[in-house]
Every structure is written in structure tokens, then in C-alpha cells.
TrEMBL record:
InterPro entries referenced in this protein's UniProt entry, alphabetically: F-box-like_dom_sf, F-box_dom, SCF_F-box_component
Any Pfam family: F-box
F-box domain ranges (all copies): 13-53
Protein name: F-box domain-containing protein
Species the sequence originates in: Arabis nemorensis
Domain of life, source organism: Eukaryota
SUPFAM superfamilies in the record: F-box domain
């Protein structure tokens, strides 16, 4: 009887083929595949790759009508979860408004002080990112990516005392269509 040795053969694929395959994966899988190699991580996090995915799966349509954000406080973990629901017209063009996507993000460092009014203001959304202000005085602005479960707290907006001239302050998204950067 012949004994067979376990022969491990490695398969080498080009970067283009890997990128093409990765484009078809759901975002949750892509987030897991970022740890495979530095090359895969840089591919998945690149703006070029994000733009190709948006084009492949369709750019956001103008029929999105409503983004509802509400919070849920978890006393055990001292954290706050934002629930983000997007409503748009149904795909059958009957004019009905239906839930088109739902996601959540949990702030590990609870930004909502229990003593304050838990008001959340959505400043905008673009390509899956959501910009919100939290608290009664709206000083802290948070940029959230619910898909990757990452967020960044932006510098507080200037207070009235810091402004030389009283002018309204607002925040929002901008996108350069030439460079595809936000």
C-alpha cells in the first residue's frame, strides 16, 4: 500500500483578481478579511475600492426619504447604542415608504451623559457614514461608520465666547466628485 504525503500547494492570485473577488463580499466579511494581510487591509480601506463598490452595487439613489436615529442606553455596560434606520420608497414604485436598511453602533465610551437631555441631531450622511451631534448643547460631533463599527469624535464646535463675531456654526458632508474624497 502506498503512503501519500500531505502536499500543500499554495495558490497565488493577482492583486486585481483579489480585488475583483473582494468587491462582491458583504461589508461585514470585508471587515473580517482586513486582518488577512496588510495588502488586503489597504485595499479594503482605500477610497478607490470604496468607490468601485458603490458603482458596482449602485450609487445611493435620490429616493431615500428618511434616516431615523434613536438611542438606547445600556446601564450594565455604561454604553449607548445608536439605531440607524433608513426608509425609502419601495422597489415596486407603489409610492409606499419601507424600511430599506437598518444598522446600529454602540459607543464604548458613552458620550451621552445621563444628566443631560439625550437629544441626537443627524447632520448628514454620505456613502454609509453618518454625522451626528449629541447632547443638549450639541458641542460634540461624531462621525460614525455603522458597517465597520468605527467612530471618531470631532473637535467640539467653537463656543460663542470663542467666536470673534457671532455667526452660525454648522457641520455637514462635502464630496469632491473629481478626486472622490470626502
Amino acid at each position: 500500500m502506498k503512503k501519500y504525503k500531505n502536499i500543500h500547494k499554495s495558490i497565488t492570485t493577482s492583486v486585481d483578481i483579489n480585488e475583483e473577488i473582494l468587491q462582491y463580499l458583504p461589508m461585514k466579511s470585508l471587515a473580517r478579511f482586513k486582518v488577512v494581510s496588510k495588502q488586503w487591509r489597504s485595499t479594503v480601506e482605500s477610497t478607490y475600492f470604496a468607490h468601485k463598490r458603490l458603482v458596482r452595487f449602485g450609487l445611493p439613489t435620490p429616493n431615500v426619504k428618511l434616516l431615523i436615529v434613536h438611542s438606547k442606553f445600556n446601564e450594565d455596560l455604561n454604553s449607548t447604542t445608536l439605531l440607524l434606520n433608513t426608509f425609502s420608497r419601495d422597489h415596486n414604485n407603489k409610492g409606499e415608504i419601507c424600511l430599506s436598511s437598518s444598522s446600529s453602533y454602540t459607543f464604548p465610551d458613552n458620550p451621552i451623559d445621563k444628566s443631560q437631555d439625550k437629544t441626537i441631531q443627524v447632520l448628514g450622511s454620505c456613502d454609509g457614514l453618518v454625522l451626528v451631534r449629541i447632547h443638549k448643547d450639541f458641542r460634540y460631533i461624531h462621525l460614525i461608520n455603522p458597517t465597520t463599527r468605527e467612530h471618531q469624535t470631532l473637535s467640539p464646535e467653537p463656543s460663542e465666547n470663542e467666536l470673534r463675531y457671532k455667526m452660525p456654526f454648522t457641520a455637514g458632508f462635502g464630496k469632491d466628485v473629481v478626486t472622490r474624497s470626502r
